[in-house]
Amino acid sequence: MSIVKRANLMIFRLFVLTIGFGLAVSGGISTIAYLNMITAGHGVDEYLAFISRRVECYLLPAGISIIWLSIYWPHNHEEN
User: Fold this and answer.
1) Which of 3, 19, 29, 35 is the most exposed place for a label (fewest CB within 10 A)?
2) Residue 37 belongs to domain spanning
């Protein structure tokens, strides 16, 4: 694999990692912000039921999955 192709692959992986990080941060902040429901008198079961219905809370596992894929997705290790 040429140096240019390898560099392009690494730049693409860095871009995907950055997108995943942004999604994970956005979802994590939403999930943590909704923890205030517990202090307002709601139980943990109500909290979990509530965040399971909120779309923005699904960004956390989606972002973590994208980060994992960008780091561990296999690529060709061709020797010269």
Assistant:
1) 3
2) 3-72
Instruction: Please indicate, yes or no, if residue 55 is contained in any of the structural domains.
Output: yes
pLDDT of 58-80, one tens digit each?
Answer: 999 999 999 999 999 876 665 54
Q: Which residue has the tokens 């923890």?
A: 35
State the pLDDT at residue 58: 96
Say how many domains are in the chain.
1
Distance CA 69, CA 17 (A): 8
Asked if residue 79 is part of any domain, the answer here is no
Whether residue 78 lies inside any domain: the answer is no
30: pLDDT strictly greater than 80: yes
Q: What's the pLDDT at 77?
A: 61
